[in-house]
Amino acid sequence: MSLEVTFKSVCAAIKKQGKDDPKLIETVDYLLGIALICSPVVLGPAAVALLPSLAVKNELIKIGKGLFEKLTKKKDEDYLLRHETMSTAYGLLVFTSFFDALDSKLPESLRKELKVLDKDKPFLIKEASGKALSKRNELSPCEAHDSPIATHAIMFPHPTETLAEQCARQSKLWKRMAQSFVELVQRLAFWDAVDEKKKASLLAGLDKLDEEAAKRFEAQYFELARKFEDFAVWANLQAHKGTKALIGELSEYVKLHAKLSAASAKVIDIGFTKLRETVLSIPETLRVSQATEMAESLSRHYQARINDPIIEDKEADEDGKPKLSFPKVSEAFVPQAFRVLRQAGSSRRLEEESTWSGLPRRNDLGAFLLSYLSSPYSTEAPLLILGHPGSGKSLLTTILSAQLTSKQFTAIRVPLREVNADADIVTQIEDSIRRITGVSLDSWIKLSALFKNCPPVVILDGYDELLQASGQVFASYVKDAQRFQEREAEQGRPLRIIVTSRVTLIDKATVPVGATIIKLLEFDTYQRECWSRIWNKSNTGYFRDAEIEPFSLPTEEERGAEKILNLAEQPLLLLMLALYDSQGNQLRNSRGLDRTKLYDSLLRRFVIRERSKEKGFSDSKAKEREKVLSIEMQRLGVAALGMYNRRKVHILSPELDDDLSFFRLEREITTRPGKALSQADLLLGSFFFVHKSKARHTSGAEDNHEEMAAFEFLHNTFGEFLTADFILRRAVAQVLALRAAESNEALRAVLDKMMGTADGFERDWFASLVYTPLFTRPVVMEMIREWIPHVLKDNQISEGEFIETLEKIVLNQIKRILNKREMPQIMRRETAQEG
């Protein structure tokens, strides 16, 4: 359906519905004629012929209300037709509100003059036309249906637009119509005979027609909300003075939605439980048909996911040892604040803060999403949800897919990190459904046809991960999603699409003009305190047994609080701070803790926890434990670098085994009876921040059956930090080696080899940099920038010394490639293989 209507299209739609009603058609034609009267620079026989009928008081009001009743009385049984009727009715209200205002403000003296026109119509038409043509060069009569007013485009209200903003938008049209009507009156034959005092009196009566039209528009707007309750949900009436009385007359669903929206300023809807209650109260205004078995299977999966803990603790219970308790996703999800806009043009830079800074901060995320998804705009273009790393985009879509699923909404969540990046969107959806339900689809067309009047909500989660997993720039992906929606709507199978992405990578996408875009904002003090209460309630027993205080963030006045509070603005990092503090309230004693320091501390702690399970580790000397810890962090770095170099968000077990062997970081394995663990399993098999998935290959004899494991970090930022750490430490190692060679004459041969041959530096250094450009992962660059002062301090080298020597190494390599065409062996071998 089109979300843009004209008075001409409105009248055509009404005529189509009442094609067997001659009186209705006559009424519509009459209103089109009134539109001609109120069109700028339009005057002719058709216009003057209609003027006498304006002398009948309340005639226009009666006609407008009659048409509105006829249009809205019909109950459409089709989703698209219902929204088309709403759109037509809305367009009708924009114009009839002005006609009603004109009817109410028309001075009686002018009505009398218009009655006279009925007697002298032929003469006045001729005279009026002559006057107009003498004043306007080349002006000719205009047919009503082609008049500028009748063809003026009106946009259907968007969920981001308030009633006041709509009135302001329509006011321009009403002012034009008022001005045109006044100009027409001044050109009639009688005007020249009227004295100045009477002219002023007549014009005063027609003053501020646009303001009167706005009042009548508001009143009729409420009538439209009464006729279509789903329109009431996205019509943004909450702030209007007449809303309370109106909502009291409507269904429980509208009341709950209004309550949800109003309460968002004071109460946080944890886990979207209130949103769920509102969704389940939606009345069945259309005959909804679904692929019931498929919908129930998806619903069971999504409900199970929100009952999972926010992080899976892989640590086995030990007698007498306190153990952290992780709340369920549904118990721990605190909705983010957000800003919202509609894409006005391709020049708008969504990744820039200046684009968003002037927009209001909103806290009604659940209510807004429900409003948007109830509107026809949701089937016209994808909704984009943007956020920084750790802002909770995926958690939001997990909660949303579970809490929306009902008779009215069928959510299909597609984690883009898990799909074939080269496949089209339909294939990605079909594959995702198959993974969840275990059922292969014949085709999307057959499935979507089963969701009549219940357009599915397809959630494409992680556009940025699609880019990172493939290394390609899918610039048209969001636009392709919109084309998919357009095609489906044409075939009578509308669907809604939501796409999530990091803000920093959305500049790679072509965002359609008119698309609605949400940017998730950082947690404020209230949201942080809410989340902390949930965490502390879940871990009351742990704090008691561990003899520590509950988790709390520092106040703004405390020294060193700023960096910690900045970290706590992102939901993921707030969880990381709580984990950090869970060991002896370390956070209370921390100073200068930044994001990279937090990740390093947490990863090292969980490495120690894993290695402490091994005999002898805890009893070894501190220096030996530190060496083991350093090597284990490097091994984790190999896993992260393996994903980064392959441009994936996971790594297969054989790939990780090969990489550990390449970097000579394999662990010694004590020979025991039975099947030995792989190097990958030894490293990541039970690591806290890693998710492991398996696929079993069962061909051949039972003894030959194998499992293929894939590992991925629970959140990209863990891998990004480890990648940054690994690359940075390799760079520091080469800098230190070169500086040592330069300062020691005994190492002259080493220096000559380093600076005089293509393979003079360690292959670890080359392997970290030759496969994937750093600019493709902006967060890795950010991590390096943030982490480098800590690493340089540990290695007792200044930033100036490091940069000076690093530039020397890089310049040497560039000259060698450009001047001598000499490349390191690792690049030559790769090139030969590709060739």
Poorly predicted sequence stretches spanning 5 or more consecutive residues: 120-144, 695-705, 831-835
Total DSSP helices: 37
Structural class: alpha/beta
Shape: elongated
How many strands appear in the DSSP assignment? 11
Q: Any idea what the radius of gyration is?
A: 35 Å
Major β-sheet strand ordering: 3-8-4-7-6-5
> What is the terminal separation in angstroms?
52 Å
Mean pLDDT: 82
Q: Into how many domains do the coordinates divide?
A: 5
| DSSP helix fraction | 55-70%
Q: How much strand?
A: 5-15%
Biggest sheet record: 6 strands, mixed
Write a structural description.
55% of the residues lie in helices and 6% in strands. The radius of gyration is 35 Å and the shape is elongated. A hairpin with an 8-residue loop joins β10 (690-697) and β11 (706-713). With 835 residues, it is α/β, with parallel strands linked by helices. The strands form three sheets. A six-stranded mixed sheet has the order 3-8-4-7-6-5, with helices on both faces. The relative contact order is 0.06. The chain starts with a strand and ends with a helix. It has 37 helices and eleven strands. The protein has five domains: 4-228, no CATH class; 243-280, no CATH class; 292-312 and 324-520, P-loop containing nucleotide triphosphate hydrolases (Rossmann fold), CATH 3.40.50; 532-622, no CATH class; 636-834, no CATH class. Residues 120-144, 695-705 and 831-835 have low confidence and may be disordered. The longest helix is centred in the N-terminal third of the chain and has 27 residues, at 79-105.
